[in-house]
What does this fold into?
Amino acid sequence: MDILVIHLFNALLYTSVLFLIAGGLSLIYGVMRIVNLAHGNLFALGAFVTASAVGQWFAGSTSAALYLLIPTGAFAAAAVGAALEPTLLRPFYRRPEEYQLLVTFGILMILEDVMRFIWGPYPLTATTLFEQMGSIKVGEFIYPRYNLLVITIGALAAVFLWAFIYKTRFGVVLRATSQDMRRASALGVNVNLVYIQAFTIGCFMAGLGGAIIVPGQSAVLGMGVDALVLSFIVVVIGGLGSLDGAMVGALIVGLLREFAISTFPELELAVLYLIAAIVLLVRPAGLFGRTT
Amino acid sequence: MAGVGMASMAHAQEKAKGTIPDKPFKIGHMTFFTGAGAVLGEPMYKGNVLAADEINAQGGLLGKRKIEILKADEAAGTDANTKEMRRLKLSEKIDMFMGITSSGNTPALGPVAEELKLLTIFVDGCTDFLFDKAVPNPRYIFRITNIQSADGSTCALGVAMTWPDVTKVAHIHPDYSYGRNCFDHFSIVTKKMLPHAQNVSEAWPKLFSTDFTPHITKTLAAKPDLLVTSLWGGDYVAFYKQALQHGLFSKMKVATTLALGAAPHSIGKDHPEGVLSGVHANYHFSYPAGNRWPLNKTFVEKYKAKFNEYPNFQAEGAYTATHALRTAVEKANKLMGGWPDDDAIISQLEGMMIPGPGGYVYIRPDNHQGYKDAITGFSKNVPDYPFPILDPTRIITIPIRNITAPPGWPKGEPTSTYTWIDQTWPTVKTA
Amino acid sequence: MSTIALIAPALRRSPVRIAVWAVPIAVILAVVPWVMDSYRTIQLAYGLIFAIAGLGFNILLGYTGLLSFGHAAYFGAGAYTVAFMVKYLHVQSMELFLLGTIAATLLVTALFGYVCVRYTRIFFSILTLALSQVLWSLAFKFFWVTGGTDGLRVPTPKLLGAAFAESEDKIHFLSHAYYYYVLVVFVVAVGVMWLIVHSPFGKALQAIRDNETRARFVGIRIRRYRFVAFLLSGVFTGIAGALWVPLNGLVTPDALVWTFSGEIVFMSVLGGFRNFTGPIVGAVVYNYLKDFAVGFTVYWQTFMGVVLVVLVLTLPTGIVGTAKLLLATARRRRSQ
It folds into this structure.
């Protein structure tokens, strides 16, 4: 019985991070109709920056300081996003969608190498906080407390985001722009500003995913591309452009992965692609998405 | 330092015979400089560079030809790598090719090197598939580090020697050919040595994952006596840190094939002691220590001085390979004078037994594979280093001829060594 | 859609006009092995092979307006078909390989296409990407069939029944006999594709691309046309994959990965996807560009990324498109 609880925690851990990444991707698409292929790299950037901050630059600080440093990765990712949007993405809004995919594909390639250039080839860890928080007992097993922190942050992020989108004025503007950009503009919305804000928030989310998970794992080159593929699977299942879809999709992926690993270990690699394929065959827009 | 000679592989050369051109000797070195494989690839290149520097300090090969190394990134993909090898040979006119980390690339590049008639010493890419199937009768290609099957076998023998009472075994291996190879060979050796051991859990995480909590949970749920894992590099680091917080190490013995081999400095002192820590059956810089094997002492000191880190098995392999080349060239020159052609160098490499930092390496003439005695050991924290090393009081050495298929053994599935163990090893009878 | 509108483009492209630039190029390509060294000839062989893949890809993008981000699936399917035919059927003939590839890729493309053509734009792209990843994961997992990450070896095939002796120089074989074989298939592919895009079928595709609603009103069965375009596209790319395998001698799941699909897109955009010859030029140039980048620096990915970004920002019509623009401007200036 306890083992099921632990399995659930593991699934929720994965879900939390996936939600942050996929949610960011979906948000950006929902508002701007851009699929950012470099999105996974922002997750990786968040991980690397936080790992450096917590594990190297300020390594000797007090725990409280280290906790405060965790979100640095998220802010770094947001900064990069804020820099990228007006320079490399804005020229493409009036162009066919193909070009957006291509330019973000190019950015993906560049960012991969930039991270290699800055952080070198070795994996980066920053496990001080992970170890410090210790573990709690779950029946006869123990479970790292830090993972529970990540799950909590993921849940809080979901709630906060939901409130932000549906309960604030800014959220109204965001939703209006996503539904009908021209009409929103005609009504006086500064669409350029909304776009850059949405993009920055999306990148922040991805960076946050990387930042909070890295103390318990590690930052390795190539993690961005892996994350992108996974977040694609999530939005395929949940529906592109829908935050609810990102949540549900992340949950399904997290649970399915956990289930596959514990029961059909050989399927681990394939099961997520298979479920994506099945959803695509049955409901290509995803559970919460629209094909328009 | 009177009376204590600095033993080094770059000993002073005798004067070369005949006329030697002073054209530089170009080596094309291809390994992972970017991507997740760079943790293994960079040290390989550094080993090559260190050896080249030593040789060039004496004027170069045969005192006249300085070594120039051209770099290429293996992460470009198998297709691009094939083209790049061709470009290096046909356009850059390299004299020799060295490197390769990934076992996906040696079977692709081996035949191409043969087509190009390009003298090649692969440092890694250790898959048995290369000389079992891809190039069963190599002429121009060689490989210096131990064949992949040695990993799983060494680990299994280490377990059999140390923990013969295990009955329930769990596995976590990365889902690609190396992980499968380790699993297969660990299993076949265990079948013979510990016939009562049973697999109770398997997990196959994707290579370069960072989250191992589900696999750890699964393993814990199965309540095994022993966990066997071939995770390496960043995977292993993430794994052991997570496993510590799940209390895995206190609940079972752990045996690994490559934990301490990839990047010795990346494992922290929080790593539990007494874990059977594989080094790809090849080399750990801490063994042999001190003056016990002066070649290693000098190698480690020079490597540390030049690169500010400790060498891994890839670095040792590339270093030894470069010196093997030098030795072959010198011997051929002594016999025939002038600069030896590829055939002469090949004839000297075949059957060469050369002492390297990691031990004696024997290059078998029939399959051009390098063999050195396999080692593994147990993790231990010592004050001299900020990371764990192999416990110097508990090193396990296994003669390589005891765990790899001999010359003349027919090629088999999944590997020749597997069928050889399966068909020729006796099964241990428990009392 | 009057008759004049249908004939006029064909008249403009009379056989003489085509021959003016097509024949010299064909001649140049034919003498390459005697003029350039073997390495560059083999490079060009790769370029021609990817040009075939690009032609196939572009019938979807340039002519039907569908961006597929999963074309590696068909390329890899072609490559693996050859490997399977070697492994299980012990076939050695290149002609049989090509036939087998056409059959196999028809199957895969039909399956994927049936799903994908129901959607357009971004959903189409994502669908193609996801499905190609499914194929990739299957190739990865079923390692006892596909060799997993070790891959499957493909020995030198028999061209037109002539076997390659072990004693022969493989480099010479690749840069001469095999190069000519590829060249012939390339010319045939170009010819077939030319006929396709200038046929009423091709015109219908462009109509669908330009205005789907209007095309439907004219009576064109959108989904059916898209499906056939998808089939053609996949088969061409599969043939490229089959030709590619003997050059490397090995096929691994790398041939199916989505970033490889991205490269195919890159090639077409580089050359200009609004032109017939765009993907051809793009594939050849991309090939040289990447080889140069990989040989030049370990940060070749940055190099290619920057090229892509700059390309899309400044030269969206690609090399051929920009060249045509420049030519038209020069002609206009001359006539003024």
Observations:
- The interface with chain C takes residues 29, 33, 35, 88, 91-92, 95, 97-99, 101-103, 105-110, 112-114, 116-117, 225, 229, 232-233, 235-236, 240, 266-267, 269-270, 273-274, 276-277, 280-281, 284-285, 291 of chain A (CB under 8 Å).
